[in-house]
Amino acid sequence: MMKNIPIWQDIKTKKYPKLEEDAETDILIIGGGITGLSTFYELKNNPCKIILVDKYLLGYGATSRSTAKITYLQENIYTKLKNSFDFNTAKLYYESQKEAIKQIVDICHKNDFDCDLEPNSSYLYTTKKSEINKIEEEYNILEMFGEKPQKGITLPNNKKVKSQIYVNNTYVFHPLKYIHELARISHNKEHLIYENTNIEEIVKQNNLFYCKAGDYTIKARQVVVASHYPNFLFPYLFPLKCYIEKSTLIATKEKNINKFNAINISNPILSIRNYQDYYIHVGSTHNLCFDTYPSSDYPDLLKQIPSKNISYNWSNHDIMTYDNLPFIGEIKPNLFLATGFNTWGMTGGVLSSLILKDLLEKRPNKYEYIFNPLRNNKEKLLKYPVNIFSNTYSFIASKINLHKKAYKKNPYYTELNGQKVAIYKDENNKEHIVYSTCPHLGCSLIFNKEEKTWDCPCHGSRFTIEGKSIIGPSDYDISYDKKN
Ligand SMILES: Cc1cc2nc3c(=O)[nH]c(=O)nc-3n(C[C@H](O)[C@H](O)[C@H](O)COP(=O)(O)OP(=O)(O)OC[C@H]3O[C@@H](n4cnc5c(N)ncnc54)[C@H](O)[C@@H]3O)c2cc1C
Q: Can you give the pLDDT at residue 268?
């Protein structure tokens, strides 16, 4: 039977406590995905007090919804960086990804991690004659870096393509197992982890950050925002500096599996990797703001994959920057940010931890300049109007109720005690009532009928059918309170 959850979440994981009192710490890390936990790990030998909090469960954000390829062959990133910056920036990015890969492999081997890490060749291909030159360009830059990619016209699953290149020194792993291994070996009496602890607000007073988590406050000297979407960094104008890309993923069970991972260079993107008896396919990628009601992402991806033995299906969002470089670094004294990994956050998150370790401990880092989150450049500024348009479009589209017409019976939208609500009846006929407006910026929520979640079409907040906030910028749940 098909499961509407990420294949990685189909395991039992250790649970960590919720914060139940005020706390004081030297370093607070907000977010228990690959970025936050890698940073927590890197600070393992730091004598300071450290607290890591996650608003839900460790690894349940973008990290356990990804394909978890650990690769430096990332579409035609080096051509893009060489064209929009210069050769040296492209080379520095390449070196940073190689360093992150080495770090993951070293950590796994040194600590004997049980996380299904294995070498896995990465392919970049095109099925279009018109794109052969793009593959050639990327090949040439990789050669200039000293790499020796191989060439061909067939993928390991026998798919014929117009051109492909591949490299061997790349890996795959199980992202949720990796996260929990990091947590297991890094937490101790001075380095604490709390789950279900949502930071709602950060206020700086007298060189201390006061971070509100429900009824409690965490006082911290330094704060790392590794929450994927850094909504509390007002007025950093984050929604204008990036956009959110949504993709659908399907895992199919197969008799014959070839061990490899591949991504095309074209639009629409199609990506694949093996895991045990499964192929994981990614597609239907688009700017979240232009989502359709109801979503056609899942059927569209189904049309593109040959196998119909679907075992899992889910979706994921990542934060995309306009100059193809992540935001990693200090945005105010002692306030650090790491996000915008452009769908390459396994390496990006680990790279962030290496940079942040240096910055937190007041040492320079050679990548500090290119990933500076406060950088301004032409690409970014030119996109401000585009982003204002797409944010406004998704807000208005949600408000004029396009999706409400699509779902007439279950779920349905109504008003209770003057409040806009949506009601979903589960398979046991139990009603789940939620407020139908996203607490982040007020967009109307849409129902994700595959995964049974309430999703915000503007900035990607997601809620369970009971209304618990599980992903994205919203700080608050949407469960309907009958007393109101
Ligand atoms: C379809 C798809 C496929 C991908 N495949 C790959 C791949 O193969 N290889 C690769 O390198 N990258 C891949 N990525 C990218 C990768 O998934 C992300 O870049 C990466 O997981 C981001 O990690 P993170 O730790 O920054 O964020 P997350 O994993 O989202 O972690 C952030 C955490 O912060 C918590 N949080 C949020 N707000 C708060 C708050 N207020 N208080 C407390 N906690 C909070 C969340 O609960 C969450 O657990 C893919 C992305 C997509 C969309």
A: 85
**Where do the domains of the chain lie?**
11-65+175-239+325-381, 402-471
- E strand segments, 356-427: 412-416, 419-425
Over the stretch 27-86, which tens digit does the pLDDT of each residue have? Answer: 999 999 999 999 999 999 999 999 999 999 999 999 999 999 999 999 999 999 999 999
CA proximity to 179, closest of 54, 336, 343: 54
Query: Ligand 1: does its nearest atom lie under 6 Å from the Cβ of 179?
Result: no
Confirm or reject: Cβ of 346 under 6 Å from ligand 1.
yes
Give the span between the Cα atoms of 60 and 62, in whole angstroms: 7
**pLDDT one-digit tens code per residue, 148-163:** 999 999 999 999 999 9
Quick check: 406 pLDDT over 80?
no
- DSSP code string of 216-279: EEEEEEEEEE-SSS-TTSTTS-HHHHEEEEEEEEEEEE-SS----EEEESSSS--EEEEETTEE
Please tell me the class of the 402-471 domain.
Answer: mainly beta
Ligand 1: which of 42, 54, 57, 453 to mutate, most ligand atoms within 8 Å of CB? Answer: 54
Question: Could you give the CA distance from residue 279 to residue 350 in angstroms, rounded to a whole number?
Answer: 25
Pick the atom of ligand 1 nearest to 261's CA. Answer: 8
Give the separation between CA 402 and CA 122, rounded to whole angstroms.
41
CA distance 480 to 477: 9
* CATH numeric code, 11-65+175-239+325-381: 3.50.50.60
Over residues 288-319, the pLDDT tens digits come to 887 776 678 888 898 888 877 999 999 999 99
CB 220 within 8 A of CB 51: yes
